[in-house]
Amino acid sequence: MDSIQIIGYIGALIVGVVLGLIGGGGSILTVPLLVYLLGYNPILATAYSLFVVGITSLVGTYDKYKKGLVDFEIGLAFSFPSFLAVYLSRRYLVPAIPDVIMSFGNFELTKDIVIMVFFALIMLFAAISMIKKKKDLKPSEKKQAYYKTFIQGITIGTITGLIGAGGGFLYVPALVLWANIPMKKAVGTSLIIITINSLIGFLGDVQNLDIAWDFLLTFTAISVLGILLGGMFSKYVSGGKLKKSFGYFVLIMAAYIIYRELLELSVI
């Protein structure tokens, strides 16, 4: 095992600890870690991220379930359109994107660059949502028609499939505002959606990619250990302040990714 791989596993532990401390957000570190530190291409990195996110969210779901904070009926109803979109995105949409999307002279816009820039834009959105002081979300007075939930699930699932992240920062407000459930239960319920979406999305990748199972299972196990440690430490740390600080870190990371990818454009 070389030093870079050891650092990667340390990064996996940090990802898990962050998830355990603030209940989300750590998964968006997985793709940059795999791409820029360990040298994986974005397609494989987003696939690995889906597996890591799915397994770690499964652990989180069990913890929330023990506390009575998971609504399986709503979670499974919302999961159906979402996991369809995630699976189809990973199985057909991502492979269908051409390796070179556009070229003009020395300018070449590649599939890898587009995916990483899109990922960075979603990171920016997530960072702002963590930093901004939000008013408490309140459930609407009545539940919306299921066809609207279906459309929303398809939309969020497609985004999740493209970037290989959990999408908790999208699912939680959706569950509160559209499914009419309380905030704490929305957080727990989002985990079951993320678990199902991520693992089914990963199944779409298994059919297209060669998976290094030894590395992936080790990386995932270390992330799960991190979640357990983060959960133990969470009672001693202010979640609000930590989430805001992490938001600034994600903001810097997003800017770095955009800078790196634009630099790639300039050297082609």
Automatic annotation (TrEMBL):
Keywords: Cell membrane, Membrane, Transmembrane, Transmembrane helix. Its main location: membrane. It comes from the Bacteria. It is found in: Cell membrane; Membrane. InterPro entries: TM_pro_TauE-like (IPR002781), TSUP/Inactive_protease-like (IPR051598). One of its GO terms (cellular component) is plasma membrane. It is a multi-pass membrane protein. The chain crosses the membrane at residues 7-37, 43-62, 74-93, 113-131, 151-174, 186-204, 211-233, 245-263. Belongs to the 4-toluene sulfonate uptake permease (TSUP) (TC 2.A.102) family. PANTHER family: MEMBRANE TRANSPORTER PROTEIN MJ0441-RELATED, MEMBRANE TRANSPORTER PROTEIN YJNA-RELATED. This is Probable membrane transporter protein. It comes from Pseudotamlana carrageenivorans.
